[in-house]
Design goal:
Layout lengths: L1 H28 L2 E6 L12 H9 L3 E3 L15 H17 L4 E7 L1 H12 L4 E5 L5 H7 L1 H12 L6 E8 L2 E8 H8 L7 H7 L6 E6 L22 E5 L6 H14 L3
Helix pairs in contact: 2-9, 4-8, 6-7
């Protein structure tokens, strides 16, 4: 009986020792907080994000998934500056919960917001998946609505709501919002222009940017990534997928890259 008990005790000790590296990895992962920023007209619950979010959570990261001002149910009920305050609230919550580092993980328009945030507030890293929403290009197609919003603001009617056109990866739709909010997101020289915000970063932070070769809104590496302050851990990756497939295709890569920041 003593021999059996000893063997059982040894087996338990061995199992505990084998589990130790995994437990240590989970504990280290818990030091990392993630704020996930979805794309335009989407929600964090969209199927295209299921695999990515599951893998981030399984890795042990602290994950926040706010529904943003460009989400399907809110679009557009807040301007760029207010959206930065909302993201900051999520970042602060993660730090208060014990996260030693916070990473913004964005897809499409979520990348736009993440880069703006990094240009105006401290953040530890950014994951940019299929960057989208480029006002400097969209304004050419939406010139009438952009001009009308600007005229309303100049006439002191910036807070008045109206219907305006917007475009999401070739999909033309209508939003009802104030002229001021609409222009904050669509001004071709405003706060939502990604190359401009990339160039505004004063401190280099690691950025993982993943684009799809089949994505109709993909632009050259120089468009955004080339304007960021260089960082030794920054990476630019191209996958053979389209815009909506990038989060799923890049999920494993994202987890692996974030783990290198620990």
């Amino acid at each position: 009986m003593k021999r059996i008990a000893w063997r059982l005790k040894c087996a338990m000790i061995c199992a505990a020792l084998l589990a130790l590296p995994w437990q240590m990895a989970q504990a280290a992962a818990a030091d990392t907080g993630i704020v996930f920023l979805h794309g335009k007209e989407a929600t964090p619950r969209a199927k295209i994000y299921t695999s990515l979010l599951e893998q981030l959570q399984r890795a042990g990261f602290r994950v926040k998934t706010p529904a943003t001002a460009w989400s399907r149910d809110r679009i557009y009920d807040a301007d760029v500056d207010t959206s930065m305050v909302e993201i900051e609230r999520e970042v602060t919550t993660l730090r208060n919960e014990g996260a030693l580092r916070v990473v913004l993980v964005g897809h499409s328009m979520g990348v736009n917001a993440a880069i703006r945030y990094a240009a105006t507030r401290p953040i530890d890293a950014v994951v940019a998946l299929a960057p989208g929403h480029s006002p400097e290009f969209l304004a050419r197609q939406l010139s009438g609505d952009v001009a009308r919003a600007r005229q309303m603001i100049e006439a002191g009617k910036g807070g008045e709501k109206s219907s305006f056109r917007d475009i999401n990866v070739g999909h033309d739709f209508t939003v009802t919002t104030s002229a001021a909010i609409y222009l904050s997101w669509l001004d071709p020289e405003g706060a939502a222009v990604m190359p401009r915000n990339a160039a505004l970063l004063k401190t280099a932070v690691p950025v993982l940017m993943v684009v799809g070769s089949k994505d109709p809104v993909t632009r050259s590496q120089d468009y955004i990534f080339g304007k960021l302050p260089p960082h030794p851990r920054s990476r630019f990756v191209t996958l053979d997928v389209d815009h909506k497939e990038v989060p799923d295709a890049a999920a494993g890569l994202v987890v692996e890259w974030i783990n290198t920041l620990q």
